[in-house]
Each structure stands twice: as structure tokens, then as C-alpha cells.
Specification:
This protein is an alpha/beta fold and about 400 residues long. Helices cover about 45% and strands about 15% of the residues. It is built from 15 helices and 14 strands. The strands form three sheets. A seven-stranded mixed sheet has the order 4-10-9-8-7-5-6, with helices on both faces. Strands 1-2-3-12 form a four-stranded mixed sheet. A three-stranded antiparallel sheet has the order 11-14-13. β8, α9 and β9 form a beta-alpha-beta unit. It starts with 7 loop residues before the first helix and ends with a helix. Bound molecules: pyridoxal-5'-phosphate (PLP).
Length: about 400
């Protein structure tokens, strides 16, 4: 009899041959220092942009919630899992994002799947940026809507697609990230919203990486470009700058009410754990009351960008990000090279991830900065990059 799993060994071999094989490495992090396999490295691989994952007030809030409400929510929100802190967090997120209401999911991934699959179906059209996150692309698949990807950030192409296809469908949803997680560039939200208005399309913006980083209040890129008051579906995660776990959708009261009935990943999934919920709420309060971490972060971002210009790393000017952000990506010729770069930097005490296909189409080093980095940390990074 043939083994029904006999395809696994050759499939893994193919992954190895392409230098795509990966394995998680246990590490511990404290501030900007990570310990990986006994080595202390400066951490340029974390999404903990403001260092809030280890903030005493965030940890305390999580501990108190754990003791008050237990380790799990023990039910979906509509059955027995709804707690006052879920309500409080949703109120706070709506205010923070400038929307009427919010809904908290168990992860950002589930927020995207749930929201997209709820608002469109087979009769509808999705136009998505080609570099959108996996959760946005899989949300489109799950919805069954006809989906077309437009070239990354190409608003002219998006306009053409709307012009040619919009009229054949009932609803239309345009989907984009604001700060692109694997490229570090930003979507032109006002232009995109204008197109959406002209063609009667809804817009979903994923602010996973921009939240906590952009706009004076830390609300995100949508607020930075003065678009918070527009009719938008804003999604994000509690797991990056907010240092916790979970995801959310912010929008109109009616949108959120609709999602409470139709977003399957919310209705049929256990409510966010009390500790995660309380930690995110504490982090959200800190972001709005203490601007110092964000100011530190931006000083380091400026320092890195100045330094990279001096190194002339960006031989091709079109690769230079127009607007600095905490995510800086440096393209590598292939997967093998990016791995060797990452190892070389590791030997110099720098933890910089090499991102390879299939996560991205072309291999790259991905640097992410955080508020805890010092001036000397960035200098060490620049020296390491200079060696490459
Ligand atoms: C990380 C990320 C998500 C998923 O968020 P999680 O809370 O980690 O599941 C969604 N969208 C983008 C753009 C992300 O970078």
C-alpha cells in the first residue's frame, strides 16, 4: 500500500534546495537586547516599536486581569466570554483611531479574515495591493469575491482597474496596508480614498505597523494624513507597538454591529484572553500619555536614514523610501546571500532578519527599529552594514 504522506519528504527537500528552510529560534528579549542561543545581540528584528511589551504598567495590568478574570475568557463573546475590559478596550480603540466603534479579535490575522469575508462575497470585487500581507490576501480568498491585485502602490493602475471592472460588480473593496510590513513604504491614502469615492468603493486599511508610530498621538498613518474622519474600515493588531496579542477593526457603528453578526472569526472564536486585553488597554493609554518613546524612536529612524545615505546603500534611488519609517529593507541578490548577510551581522552582535521567498518575492534584510535603541546601537548597525 502506498503511504499517503510520502509527498512530505520531497516537498521538504525542495524547500531546502531553494534555501527557504526555516526554524524558529528560541530567544529572550529585554529592551533592545535579545539573547539568542546564548549570544547577546542588539535586536533589529522586533515589532515592539515602543518597547511596551516589557513596560511595568503593561505587565501589571496583565497580571491584575489574570488574577481578576482568570487565564482564559472561556467562551466566545456572544456566549459567555464577554468581559467589561473587552468593552473598555473597544471604546479606547475607537477613540484612538477616530472611528465610531471597534471590535477586538483574537489576532490581527483573524480580524482581516473576518472583516473582509464579512463585507464582500462572490458578487463583489476586491482590488488589493500586490504586496499586501498574507492575512489580507487570504481574507480575499475566503470571501469568494473576484480579486485583482494592482501593482504595489500604483494608484494609476488602481484607477484603470476600477474604471474597467467596477461596474460589473455589486460592491467593491479596496485593500491596502498603510506602512508595508516587508518594504517599509507607505500607501498614498488620500489618493486612494479619492478613487474609492469616485467609484463607490469601500476601503480597508491595515495599520498593523503604523499604529503607535505615526501621527503626534501615535494613532497611525491614516491620522498622519488627516483621513481619520473618512468612511474607512481600519484594521490593526494589538501585537506590535501595543506589545500584546489580538487584532481589531474600527469603523462606523453600523459596520461594527454588522461584523458582530457576520464576522465568522469573531462569532465562532473564543474571546481575547483577559490578560492580553488588559495589557493592550494599558499600552494604549501609555501611547497617548507618554510621547517620549515615540520621540526616541524617530530620532533613531532619522539617524539610520542619514547613515544609510552616507553608506550609499541605496544605489538605485527608486529603492530609497521617500518617507522614513521604523522598517528599513535592503534588497539582496538571492536567498543564500541574505542568509549569509544575516549571519555576518549576527557575528557582530546584530540581530537582523533575512526575509526570503515565499514571504516576499525578493530576498532582503529587514531592519526594524525600536524606542530602546541607543545612538550607539545604530552606529554599530551602520558599521555592520558598511562591512557588507
Ligand atoms: C502582523 C500583521 C498582521 C497580523 O497580525 P497578528 O496580530 O500578528 O495576527 C496583519 N497585517 C499585517 C500587515 C501585519 O504585519
Amino acid at each position: 500500500m502506498q503511504d499517503p504522506y510520502d509527498w512530505l519528504a520531497p516537498a521538504l527537500k525542495t524547500i531546502h534546495r531553494a534555501h527557504w528552510y526555516r526554524q524558529p529560534q528560541p530567544s529572550t528579549c529585554k529592551g533592545a537586547i535579545a539573547t539568542v542561543q546564548g549570544r547577546e545581540l542588539i535586536n533589529f528584528a522586533s515589532n515592539n516599536y515602543l518597547g511596551l511589551a516589557h513596560h511595568p504598567a503593561v505587565i501589571q495590568a496583565g497580571q491584575t486581569a489574570l488574577e481578576t478574570w482568570g487565564s482564559g475568557a472561556t467562551g466566545s463573546r456572544l456566549l459567555s466570554g464577554h468581559r467589561q475590559i473587552h468593552h473598555d478596550l473597544e471604546q479606547a480603540l475607537a477613540t484612538f483611531k477616530g472611528g465610531e466603534a471597534a471590535l477586538v479579535f483574537s489576532s490581527g490575522y483573524l480580524a482581516n479574515l473576518g472583516a473582509i469575508a464579512a463585507v464582500v462575497d462572490q458578487r463583489d470585487l476586491i482590488l488589493g495591493d500586490a504586496y499586501n500581507h498574507s492575512s489580507l490576501k487570504n481574507g480575499a480568498k475566503l470571501s469568494g469575491a473576484h480579486t485583482i491585485n494592482y501593482p504595489h502602490l500604483d494608484m494609476a493602475a488602481l484607477g484603470q482597474l476600477l474604471h474597467h471592472h467596477r461596474h460589473q460588480y455589486r460592491r467593491c473593496l479596496i485593500v491596502t496596508e498603510s506602512l508595508f510590513s516587508m518594504d517599509g513604504d507607505l500607501a498614498p491614502i488620500p489618493t486612494l480614498l479619492k478613487l474609492a469615492q469616485d467609484f463607490q468603493a469601500m476601503v480597508l486599511v491595515d495599520e498593523a505597523h503604523a499604529t503607535g508610530v505615526f501621527s503626534p498621538r501615535g494613532s497611525g498613518w491614516v491620522e498622519e494624513v488627516n483621513c481619520s474622519d473618512q468612511l474607512l474600515i481600519q484594521v490593526g493588531t494589538l501585537s506590535k507597538a501595543l506589545g500584546s496579542l489580538g487584532g481589531y477593526v474600527v469603523g462606523s457603528q453600523m459596520l461594527i454591529e454588522f461584523l458582530r453578526h457576520r464576522a465568522a472569526t469573531w462569532v465562532y472564536s473564543t474571546a481575547l484572553s483577559p490578560a492580553d486585553t488588559a495589557a493592550a488597554l494599558a499600552a494604549l493609554n501609555l501611547i497617548q500619555t507618554n510621547h517620549q518613546p515615540r520621540e526616541n524612536l524617530w530620532q533613531r529612524i532619522d539617524q539610520l536614514h542619514q547613515g544609510l545615505k552616507k553608506l550609499e546603500w541605496f544605489h538605485n534611488p527608486s529603492l530609497t523610501p521617500e518617507i522614513p519609517s521604523p522598517i528599513v529593507c535592503l534588497t539582496a541578490p538571492d536567498a543564500q546571500t541574505v542568509l549569509s548577510w544575516s549571519h555576518t551581522l549576527g557575528d557582530r552582535g546584530l540581530w537582523v532578519s533575512g526575509i526570503r521567498p515565499p514571504t516576499v518575492p525578493h530576498s532582503r534584510l529587514r531592519i526594524s527599529l525600536m524606542a530602546h535603541h541607543t545612538k550607539a546601537d545604530i552606529e554599530a548597525l551602520l558599521a555592520g552594514l558598511g562591512q557588507l
